[in-house]
């Protein structure tokens, strides 16, 4: 089938202007919304050193898909808390695509803004996915909450982002974290409805991450039930984690009502956690979070409401 034209517009976006839906204007530098519970963890300098040397190709290949870190989490907060705030997009969205692609995972060419995430937690090495989002500091990556914090527990160490990874190649090198921002609903109690995080990234060779690879817009407080294209690096069988994959479909509610997350048709496996969900406009509006063993080929992602927006603001303005 024909693939969406979205990919062709992703790699070159590096914009900081504010665009809006519903006629509401908001700056990406605005303060966190009222009631947003945000936890910001600054990576100790001693833990930030020697990260690149640690992540050898052998360790990257052996890293465990991090979906296991979210397997026992559930929703703890009601709907009125998660859906709050005015619709806003930080960055400039692209023209909407009307092309249709397969709802199951298909291999993609590398995209400069999307990459693999590697980190250590509880003595084990894990792998996730992430995406560079437009931010005032030009140094912000979006991922899943369980890709930075185990959910009501410790934060990750040796955290690094490898944009445009493919078959062991890292054309833009490794980028280390300096701070994590995530909803306290995730970091304090592991509420799966808030399984999202934003990571502040250190410069490399005098340049920011966004200057180097570009960035995509990010949207908050949008309608539910929209159509998404999701990307990630699934590593569990039948995938290898060595190539970028994508899925496409319309979001529907959690069939069990156990979370406020939405699901799209997608057979990506562990390792794709944290990979971006894009609206047809090109703005990111969720991340790969979890799946149910009893619901085949469906990936769930958190609703990007005002609390997740607050996490973005905390990371993006540091």
UniProtKB/TrEMBL annotation:
GO terms for molecular function: serine-type endopeptidase activity. Residues 118-296 form the Peptidase S1 domain. It holds the Pfam family Trypsin. One of its GO terms (biological process) is proteolysis. Residues 1-31 form the signal peptide. This is Peptidase S1 domain-containing protein. The keyword Lyase does not apply. Keywords: Signal.
